[in-house]
Amino acid sequence: MADGFDAWEHEDAEARRARKFSRMRAMLEDGYRASSRMRRILDETGLKPADFSLAADLERLPVISRETLIQWELSEPPYGGLVDPAAPVDRIFISPGPVYEPHLSETDALWARAYHAAGIGKADRVLNAFSYHLVAAGLTFHGGLRRVGATVVPSGTAGAQSQVELIRDLGITAYTGTPSFLMAIIRKAEEMGYDWRKDFRLKRACFAAEPLWPSLRETFTRDYGLDTYQMYGATEVGDVAYECREKSGWHVCEEVLVEICDPENGRRLPAGELGQVVVTRFNDIFFLMRFGTGDLSRLIEMPCPCGRTAYRLDGIAGRVGEAVKVRGMFVAPSQIQRLAQRFSGKSFRVHVRREGDRDLLVVRVEGAPGTPVDGWAGDEEFKRGFREICTVGVDRLEWVPQGTLAATDRPLVDEREWR
Ligand SMILES: [Zn+2]
Q1: Residues 33 and 174 occupy one common structural domain
Q2: Distance 149 CA to ligand 1 centre (A)
Q3: Which of 62, 113, 260, 330 could connect to 274 by a Cys-Cys bridge, CB 3.0–4.6 Å?
Q4: What pTM value is reported for the model?
Q5: Could you tell me the distance, in angstroms and rounded to a whole number, from the CA of residue 314 to the centre of ligand 1?
């Protein structure tokens, strides 16, 4: 890590690519020396760490799922041969599985970029409502908050009433934890007779570990005057991406290599296509390389008005396994739900069929063609919106009578038969 926790955030694409690849090569070299598992993998693939340079080399390494990690740890406890046995480990965390993870170092700055981007700093007194017990969350978020200079109140999993009392007594200015727990705290405060906006100074919230649904975000903003931020990571690899003030995608952290890969074969996909988020955290203790998070997302290449140059993740579209592959591209049910929010006046369902050698994407829409309703400005606009959100294009719109598509039905139906 460079000196500042915001280092490299304005680097150009070529310099960033070169820096990350050379960091990756160093990790492969260290891994070959220190991790029995990495040595085996590299020997099997014939990849020499010193020769590593291209994206194509990366694809020779397997994507490691959480299930694989658990198997490795069971067969070779505690770390599945991924950790240097001589490494100075200051803490060991446990996550369900169980998976044992070494804390990487006392000086790392996990999550500091995210808190900095959310405007949290020295003047803040932050309630950290992530659990400190066994799991990595509490202490890791704590470290990030300290790194930006904030004062941390380690409230962890204390009950909602205690959290309200801390917010009141200590003049808490920001919250970090899950969105659902913050809502429970707010409800408790109201039950105790407080007026959230008038009685408290808490104005910012940084969330992780749970999706922040747009309607909940709106409630936080509109009803409680909260400025909310999303942070994304995984317990195995730490922070991966974070939201800036633009709130339009999550910037990829500088200390990780993030790839969007085809869940079936681990191949890297171009920006804009949906695939599995695969992460390598640069470090010299835990040689977990190309960890498959099981989450689906896509990369946004477009420059962000905030000035940070790192690509952004376009939220999480769901889990690997829910997605359907159409003409080589993945489409997830959550993308169809996003589409449904945009075109809220119509009920529709997406069908994937096979016609000859080609996948056909048919959208069945309730109603009669050409009848304007709220949120439906026309077929062409719908098709444009579909391409924007799902990357692939619609082949045909089919109009069906009102009431044909039950609201509870699956939004995405794969009708292809695989033989
Ligand atoms: Zn930005």
Answers
A1: no
A2: 22
A3: 330
A4: 0.86
A5: 12
